[in-house]
Amino acid sequence: MKKMLLAAMAVLLMCACSGERGYLNYRGLSMGIKASAMADSLVAMLPNLAVDTAKSGDGQTVLADTLAQNFAVTIYHHNDTISDILESYVATYNDSTSNLWQKLHDELQQTMGWPNMGKHGDLHKDATFENESGTVVLTLLNTYSPTLSVRYSISTTQD
Predict the structure, then answer these.
(1) pLDDT of residue 1
(2) What pLDDT does 92 receive?
(3) Which residues touch 132 (CB under 8 Å, ≥6 apart)?
(4) Residue 63 to residues 57, 77, 83, 85, 149: CA-CA distances in angstroms?
(5) Is the Cα torsion angle 26, 150, 118, 81 positive or negative in sign?
(6) Beta carbons within 8 Å of 85's beta carbon, 6+ residues apart
(7) Which candidate, 67, 125, 61, 127, places its Cα nearest to that of 97?
(8) C-alpha to C-alpha distance for 77 and 80, rounded to whole angstroms
(9) What is the pLDDT of residues 88-99, one digit of tens each?
(10) Cβ(107)–Cβ(87) below 8 Å
C-alpha cells in the first residue's frame, strides 16, 4: 500500500512539474515575478531608474532614467502579473542606437536563436526572437530622433 501511495505521489509530482511554465528573463529577473517586485528590483539594480508616477497608471509602471533621461522601462501588468516589458532608448545620433541594436541582437541571438527579420536597413530594423517562454521584439528607428525599443512579451499559449 505504501509503495502504491509513493508511486501515485511521484506521478502527481511529475505531472505538476511538467506543467510549470518557463518565463523569459529580463535583466536576469524572471518575468514570472510580480510587477511590483520587478519594479523594486530594477530600481535597486539600476540606481538611475525611478518610478515615473506621472506616466504610471493602471496596468503599467514606468521607470525613467533620472540622470540621462534617454532610457525608460515600462512594465505592463494585470493584477500585478507581468505581461510585457518595454525598454525604450532615445539618442541624439544614429550610431549610438545602431551599435546598441547590434549588441542586443547578438546577445538575444545567442540565448534565443535566429530571429525573424521583418525589415532590415539603415533606418529601420526589426528582429523578432521567439521561443516557448515568449517573444522579444527588437526595433530600431533611425530617423530624426533615433530610437531603439525592446519588447519582452510572455507567451500566452501553453501546451
Answers:
(1) 36
(2) 77
(3) 22, 155
(4) 12, 14, 16, 11, 14
(5) positive
(6) 26, 31, 38, 73, 74, 75, 76, 151, 152
(7) 125
(8) 6
(9) 998 877 788 888
(10) no
Give CA–CA dist 56/102, Å, rounded: 30
Direct distance between the N- and C-terminal alpha carbons of the chain, in angstroms, rounded to an integer = 34
According to the model, what pLDDT value does residue 64 have?
A: 94
Residue pair 78/147 in contact (Cβ under 8 Å)? The answer is no
DSSP string, 16-40: HHHTPPP--EETTEETTSBHHHHHH
Q: Which three cell numbers stand for residue 139?
A: 526595433
Weakly modelled stretches of the chain, pLDDT under 50: 1-19, 157-159
3-state DSSP call for residue 54?
coil
To which residue does cell 501515485 refer? 8
CB 51 within 8 A of CB 62: yes
